[in-house]
Amino acid sequence: MKIGLVLEELHRSENDLAHELLQVADRHKVDHEIYHVGRDLAVWSQRHVREIAEIAERYGQKLDPEPRGESTLAAKLVDKSSELMGRAKFPGLLLLRDLRGLYLKAAGVSTDWEMLAQAAQGIKHTDLLEVCQRCHPQTVRQMRWANGKLKESSTQVLVS
């Protein structure tokens, strides 16, 4: 079975999504909704990382149950230096780029959850299916939030 490989990829993708949500929240602290909701949504992906690591052992994978944390000091310095070199001139465009990236990452994670759920259903592994049914809707919610914020912000940012 190749389910272990899908779990490994999903683990990596959820970690990336959580990390990206935290970075976007940090970059857009002045927008309280982006900051607070982004951090809350990151917690969901961090929880998913733990659940994936736990069930992956049954499929021959040893995955780290601890999600990647906040940005490192070095990453924050790189972010700040690029901001000072001109990126901050267009914070609205940066927000749109960040939201687009979040949407695409969440869509990829959602697809992985869907594939895994289909496989679990096909081989009648109810424990794996339950994890999918618990986590996938939250990923869909992350994707919808990013898409909604894109819709809300696009006109103002692109027309002004």
Automatic annotation (TrEMBL):
Q: What is the lineage of its organism?
A: Bacteria, Bacillati, Actinomycetota, Actinomycetes, Micrococcales
> What's the protein name?
DUF4332 domain-containing protein
Q: Which organism is it from?
A: Georgenia daeguensis
Domain of life of the organism encoding this protein: Bacteria
